[in-house]
Amino acid sequence: DVQVQQPLAVLGRDVEVPLVNGEKVTYAALDYAASAPALQRVWDDVAAYAPYYGSVHRGAGYLSQLSTDLFEQSRAAVADFLDLREDDQVVFTRATTDSLNLLAAALPSGTRVFAFETEHHASLLPWPGRGLEVAYLRAPRSVSEAVAALDAALSTAGEGPKLVCVTGASNVTGEIWPVAELAAVAHGRGARIVLDAAQLAPHHRVSVRELDVDWVAFSGHKLYAPFGAGVLAGRADWLDAAEPYLAGGGASRTVARQIDGSVAVEWHQGPARHEAGSPNVIGAYAIASACRALTEAGFDALQAREQQLIERLRAGLAEVPEVRVLTLFGEDHPRVGVLSFVVQGWNSSHFAAALSAEYGIGVRDGLFCAHPLVRTLLGGEEAAPSECGAPEPSLPGERSLNAIRVSFGAGTPDEHVDRFLAAV
Ligand code: PMP
Q1: Residue 391 — pLDDT band, cuts 50, 70, 90?
Q2: What is the pLDDT of residues 77-122, one digit of tens each?
Q3: What are the Aminotransferase class V domain coordinates in residue numbering (predicted)?
């Protein structure tokens, strides 16, 4: 039973980092979109539980039973957080990438998958190569274009199972996607839809019922919990009908040796089917703690604060004529606390390195694991290939082949944004 005064206080706010000039400054973490700092509250909850954890499921001892209860309560907390339907289920995974690969592996054979090419690689790449038919839709330049493009693609897709995969908020531009509209189109055309909420869930309430999506995926480490756990939540039927994502103990109900020497397996129904092996109980518990903290603090308050920071950032960047903010739907489109830009005459990797070395500011540079999107935004299919986030081998003064991303959330002080703007 941990009481924390500020429900959304984050860790790591007092880290001192050395600058090239020998001074030290407090680190300004402006890379929440990659991984957000953990909430103090999450850390306290985990610390309070850590001395008592035991293996979950079938342990006869008291601590095993306690852990089993807490693990299942964590599932329930996530279900509340996402406002799931009664029959939906919560599967604990390693992160969003894992969740979407799980879903891809569970799709009925022959499912036709539709995704915009603007997706993060985690929602772009799990589908091909599994006997699924995949259609990538070109980057839309407005909400109405996105809705119309999906409708047109689905209208000729024929019968059979169909899945639409859409992001809630872009990890590059921060722009919020019209999820409810796309879900209505998908369902109107007999398709199901999965929401990649990796960037949306830390900033906005995600109600599965209100958005009317079939599945949601998100990562603990972007939701103010530590690394190693994520969630796939939603409809049970396809997940229960699929082969287990991992084969092993925990997923299997009974295993019997056959006369011919093989084994016959009966797999569990429900989340356990896809959670073989000893689950990451601490990770699940941490996610549940973050879900409760965010709900208690209220997304209205979080968003109001974030909007202040976004306005401050945008106004500041607007004063620098060399800065071009990257946007798909227009600069005034609603966004979360994520913004990418390029600076004329600067290589983005050098720019980001200078922000770190000279100002103690941590941002990200590269193509942000969304190569097709960033190339579209930079205005050239010809942009050089790059590893996720790897520096481009060009010199200052050359045209940008990658971008700089600044992102923030709970606990970000004005001072971090101001220092960043002064540096820019
Ligand atoms: N989707 C989006 C929109 C993301 O931003 C990310 C992480 N950058 C992912 C999916 C993948 O998340 P993870 O690395 O935690 O699996």
Answers
A1: very low
A2: 999 999 999 999 999 999 999 999 999 999 999 999 999 999 999 9
A3: 30-420
Residue 368 sits in a domain whose CATH number is: 3.90.1150.10
CA distances from 234 to 69, 109, 147, 200, 310 (A): 21, 19, 23, 17, 32
29 alpha carbon to ligand 1 midpoint, in Å? 18
Give me ligand 1 centre to Cα 397, in Å: 31
Protein residue with least CA distance to atom 6, ligand 1: 198
**CATH number for the domain that contains residue 197:** 3.40.640.10
Nearest-10 Cα torsion for 289, 231, 255, 55: -20
Site to substitute for ligand 1 among 100, 219, 221, 405, most atoms within 8 A of C-beta: 219
Q: Which residues line ligand 1 (CB under 6 A)?
A: 95-97, 120, 122-123, 167, 171, 196, 198-199, 219, 221, 369
Question: pTM for this one?
Answer: 0.94
Residue pair 277/249 in contact (Cβ under 8 Å)? The answer is yes
pLDDT digits (tens, 9 = 90+) for 128-164: 999 999 999 999 999 999 999 999 999 999 899 999 9
Q: How far is the CA of 229 from the centre of ligand 1 (A)?
A: 12
Find the domain containing 403 and state its range.
16-37+298-423
Count Cβ atoms below 10 Å from residue 16 Cβ, excluding itself.
Answer: 10
Alpha-carbon gap, residue 335 to 332, rounded angstroms: 8
Q: What total of structural domains would you count in the chain?
A: 2
Domain boundary among 275, 296, 317: 296
- The rounded distance, in Å, linking the Cα atoms of 361 and 102 is 36
**Same-domain check for residues 231 and 367:** no
- Condensed to tens digits (0 to 9), the pLDDT of residues 4-34 reads 446 689 998 889 999 999 999 999 999 999 9
The interface predicted TM-score of the complex, written ipTM, equals 0.99
Q: What is the pLDDT of residues 33-89, one digit of tens each?
A: 999 999 999 999 999 999 998 889 878 899 999 999 999 999 999 999 999 999 999
Residue 149, in any domain of the structure: yes
Instruction: Report the DSSP pairing between strands 263-267 and 230-234.
Output: unpaired
